[in-house]
Amino acid sequence: MRRFRLGVLGNPVAHSRSPEIHQQFAAAMGISLSYEKVFVSDGTFTSVANDFLDSGFGFNITLPCKRDAWQFVDEASEGANQAEAVNTVSRTIDGKLRGDNTDGPGLVNDLLQNLGWPVYDSKILVIGAGGAVSGVLASLLAEGPGVLHVTNRTPTKAQQLEKKFPGATAVAIERLQESYDLVINGTSAGLSHQDLEIPGSVITGNTRCYDMIYGSGITRFNQWCQKQAECDVADGLGMLVEQAVLAFMIWFGGQVNTAPDTQAVINTIRNELD
Fold first, then answer.
1. Tens of pLDDT along 155-182?
2. Structural domain boundaries enclosing 196
3. Set 37, 66, 157, 227: catalytic member
4. In total, how many domains does the chain have?
5. CA atoms within 13 A on the CB side of 234
6. What is the dihedral of CA 189, 195, 197, 202, to 10 degrees?
7. Is 164 a catalytic residue?
8. How far apart are CA 142 and CA 231, in angstroms?
């Protein structure tokens, strides 16, 4: 049986759960693979990626290298081009390097399939304007929300996303007053223990709050949301696993009939975190 070499490239990567996730997928589908964490120091992405591809079948990319990966590949999906970011690199039949971005579809699949939270016709607030948000806006907009507002500490960055993604509207933090059906945190504020400057009025008991980061216990953002009102919250573990299975199917979709079960993997990692 052929053994496929895969990996995740970025900085930092020591914390990555991707090896565990893909090993579980592979075991379930009868595929033999290795999956490595590959550290990329500043300015070395191209050389590291080329070295890996000497024997590698494909790889994932995490921050801060997703734009580097987009510039590195020969061709990219529409979603990757719109986000100007790639998180999955594969080879086409004719040997070209192809870049995809599974972050947005992974988020939407977690919201709709795992959580049962509606997006269509919903009033949505997305906090942040960096690469994490840029990578998911197109997928959220494709689901037909009634309103999609983007807010950020630096208003000009949100305004840039408004121009780039028709249907998204930039709103300054100080102008946030109304409540939302769904509030998504796409910043790393929780990771750095910085408090968001979002008014509590955006949260009601009917609001659903989603933090794109994850960890053991309830994230700081979700704790803040529940202080504003007794609302439903979720973190980004489901998104992580859902984007991973889409990458797995890009690599192995021609060899397996169905995608691996993501819920089993989510449950396994959740139990380890708790």
1. 999 999 999 999 999 999 999 999 999 9
2. 104-237
3. 66
4. 2
5. 20
6. 80
7. no
8. 25
